[in-house]
Amino acid sequence: MKTVLTFIFIIFIGAIAMAQDASKEVKVETVTNGVELNIKIEKSTTIKENTVARVYKFKNTRVKKELTFETKRNNAKIA
After folding, report:
1. Which of 15, 19, 53, 60 has the fewest CB atoms nearer than 10 Å to its CB?
2. What is the rounded CA–CA span in Å between residue 36 and residue 17?
3. What tens digit of pLDDT does each residue of 29-38 get?
4. What is the DSSP annotation of 6-75?
């Protein structure tokens, strides 16, 4: 009985909410401004790239280390 009354109450509140007068659309005045593009592009000939390279002794060291992880549940249980 409680669920039926709750369901009817929710439908009643929804119907009242839909019946409310929604606020009318307000027209907004648009303002247009002219855009002036004065862009100067200068080429610089001195480009320095600072790159960092990591050197590992063996190929794929980090990947292999991550793949060989062990959890506490990897241990065999003795019956």
Report:
1. 53
2. 49
3. 888 888 777 7
4. HHHHHHHHHHHHHHS-PPPPPP-----------------S-----------SSTTHHHHHHHT---GGGS
